[in-house]
Amino acid sequence: MHNDHQSNDASASKRHQYQDLITIFDRLFADSFNTRLIKGTDEPVYLPAGHGAHYAQVVFAHGFYASALHEIAHWCLAGDKRREKEDYGYWYCPDGRNAQQQAEFEKVEVKPQAIEWAFCLAAGKSFQVSTDNLNGAEPDREGFRDKVQQQLKDYLLYGFPPRAQQFIDGLKEFYQTDPIPSKSCPVDLHVV
Known about the structure:
By secondary structure, the protein is mainly alpha-helical. The protein has one domain. The chain has 6 helices and 3 strands. A hairpin with an 8-residue loop joins strand 2 (45-47) and strand 3. The chain is globular, with a radius of gyration of 17 Å. The model is unreliable at 1-10 (pLDDT under 50).
C-alpha cells in the first residue's frame, strides 16, 4: 500500500507541473495583457512592463505550482492602475506579523485565496489556505478558511472577475476537469 501511495503522489506531481501553468497563462494573457508568468528564484513579485522586460511579469516562487496559482489570483484581481505598479503598489508585511498585522493580512487575502481555490478545483488539485505566519501571532486558520470558503461561494453564485474566469476555463480545458458549479457551492470543496 505504501508503494501505491508513492505512485499516486508521483502521478499527481507529474500531472501538476508549473510549466503547464506558464503555457496556459501565456496563451491566454501574453498578447492581450502583455503579461507573462515567470518562474522565479526567490520571493514572488509582480513587475510591470519596463522593469527588466518589455512585458509585465507575474513572478512566482521557486517553481512551486501553488505559488504560481496564488500569484495569478492576485494578478486577476488587480485593476489597470494597480498593474502599473511593482507588486500592485501594496505593502507586504512578512512572516512574523503580530495579531493586528495578521488580521490585516487575512483581510486582503480572502479574495485571492478564494480564486486560488477555484483554480485548484479547475485543475483537479487539492487546496489549502495559507495564513503565512509561521513565526508570528497564531492565526485562526479555521476562521480564515471559513471566510475564504464563503468568498468562493459568492464567486460561484455571482461570477468571478473576468481574467480569473478565463484562467479557470483554461485550466478546465487543459486538465479536462468537471465544470465548477455556478449556482450552488459543492459540498466538498477539497479542503486539506
